[in-house]
C-alpha cells in the first residue's frame, strides 16, 4: 500500500493548528475533507492520532510522536517546491566550435531544455580555442583545457572513420583491404590535424595499418571537415569523419560508415568553466549532461 502523503500533510496542518477548521482554511479544502483524510491516515497507521472532544482536538501521545517525525519532511518538501516554483531562469553562455554546435549539440538541445527548463542555455561561436574570456562566455568546449583554475569534464577523444554516401557505400562496404578504397576519390580535410597539411588525414589512416598512401590516389582537398562532410553526402568520394561532426540524421539517411579501421586525431574535447563559478546554477548539470550525451553518441 502506498504512503498517504496528502493525509500526512493534512495531519501536520491540523496538529499545528489544533483545529480541523483552521487547517481546512490553510489548505483551501473543506473541513470534512480534512477530517476524512486524517481518519484514513489513522486507519492506515492502526492508531488514533487525535482525541476528539466536540470541535476541539488534542494529539494523542502517539500523535505527538508521529508529528515530530513527519513534520520536518513535510517542511522540506514544501520549501523545495516553493523554491522550484519561484526559481527564475538562469542564463548560461556556452562557447564552442561552430561545426560542433551545428552537427552535434544543436540537434540535442531540446533534450537539455526539457530536463532543465530553468536554465537558459545560449551558444557562442568559439573563434580561438584556448582563449577563455569569461566576459564572452561562462563555459567552454575546448581541445586545450587550462592547466589550473578551471573545472573540467572529459567529453571524448576524437577518432576518424571512413564515411560516404549510399551509392558509394554499396560498393565500398564489401572491400576489406584499405588500399582498395583508392578506387574511389578520397576527400581530405586539412583542418583535422594541427599541421593543416593537405592529405594528412588519409596519410595517417593508411599509416595506421603500415601502408603508404598509394601514389596517384585521387584526393579532393578541403580546408574544413564540414566541407568534406557535405562533399561526402553528395557522393563525391570517401571522407574521414568524426561522428561528432556528423548529425544523427545524416548518418541515418545520407552518410554511411565503412567497416574499416579508425584513427585517433591529436584532439580530445573537454567542457570547462572557472573554479570560481562552480556554485553557479546549471554549470554542473550542463557538464554531466554533455558527458552523458557523448557516451550515447560513442556507443
UniProtKB/TrEMBL annotation:
Gene3D superfamilies: Periplasmic binding protein-like II, Winged helix-like DNA-binding domain superfamily/Winged helix DNA-binding domain. The keyword Transcription regulation applies. The keyword Transcription applies. One of its GO terms (biological process) is DNA-templated transcription. Keywords: DNA-binding, Transcription, Transcription regulation. Residues 3-60 form the HTH lysR-type domain. GO terms for molecular function: DNA-binding transcription factor activity; sequence-specific DNA binding. Belongs to the LysR transcriptional regulatory family. PANTHER family: GLYCINE CLEAVAGE SYSTEM TRANSCRIPTIONAL ACTIVATOR, HTH-TYPE TRANSCRIPTIONAL REGULATOR. This is LysR substrate-binding domain-containing protein. It comes from Pseudidiomarina sp. PP-1MA.
